[in-house]
Amino acid sequence: MPRMTVGRENGQDIQIHFDDHGDGPPVVLIHGYPLDGRSFEKQERVLLGAGHRVITYDRRGFGRSSQPSTGYDYDTFAADLEILLETLDLSDVALVGFSMGTGEVARHFGRRGSGRVSKAVLMGSVPPFLLRTDDNPDGVDGQVFADIKRAVLADRPAYFRAFFDDFFNVDQYAGTRISDQAYQAAFATALTMSPLAAHDCVDSWLTDFRDDVAAIDVPTLLLHGDADRILPYAATAARLPALVKDLTVITVEGGPHNIAWTHPEVVNPALLEFLHS
């Protein structure tokens, strides 16, 4: 099981699990909450078939990685990503982030720039800035996130059930684009993540990424469902064209949050065309 050390807690290594498959131009896939690197299975197969080297990893607190009690913020998440890029000595890499993973992509550019990175993909984007403030009136009311944290503390499995209903727009796509088996597999994966991370990551969603996305200076692809109930289009994707210099936007009609699973016939061709352009 390939792992890399990204820190220590109480004398023990904090380790990140990663998978590194194939040859060719490298692509790093960065997963969303509350899943892990295996959630890109519909993309990994296609990317490998198209001649890419594909690297996935489980964020700290998620999947097969260590579950420390600290570090659930985007400065730390981005630092973990940087260690991965350096450990594998990746260059001319495409960073593909989904949901929470879009935050790592954005913060990487804000911290380190594009030295190792040739392209970026934001899928179901958290940036530019979710929280409603005086200078960000199009954001989401902070009470929404306080309620999420209370729900996680009160009954984490019940919260995940409600979350996944909106993650896949189950009322619309059950039995067609999301099977009961796939839903249950996602639910089981969510239960493996650290209970501390399930709560503490919510605060990270309120990170102000406006300066980070303005620092992106490579070709960037935005893929976002216009029926996204987790990260509403108007509060997220619709605002990025004004901030990202070289941005291609593909709006997935009727797409829920996890378009990588529900709409691969749109996502995969768009991803390959962008990477090969």
Keywords:
277 residues; alpha/beta; Rossmann fold; eight-stranded mixed beta sheet; 11 helices; 40% helix
- Uncertain segments are none
- CATH superfamily label: Alpha/Beta hydrolase fold, catalytic domain
Q: What's the CATH topology name?
A: Rossmann fold
The strand line-up of the biggest sheet is 1-2-4-3-5-6-7-8
Top CATH class: Alpha Beta
Radius of gyration (CA) equals: 17 Å
Summed up, the domain count is 1
The DSSP helix count reads 11
**C-alpha termini separation:** 34 Å
Beta-strand content bin: 15-25%
Largest sheet: 8 strands, mixed
Q: What structural class do the secondary elements suggest?
A: alpha/beta
H and E string: EEEHEHEHEHHHHHHEEHH
Which helices and strands occur, and which strands form pairs?
Layout: E1 3-9, E2 12-21, E3 26-30, H1 41-49, E4 53-57, H2 74-87, E5 93-98, H3 100-112, E6 117-123, H4 142-154, H5 156-167, H6 170-173, H7 180-192, H8 195-204, H9 210-214, E7 220-225, E8 247-252, H10 259-262, H11 264-276
Parallel strand pairs: 3-4, 3-5, 5-6, 6-7, 7-8
Antiparallel strand pairs: 1-2, 2-4
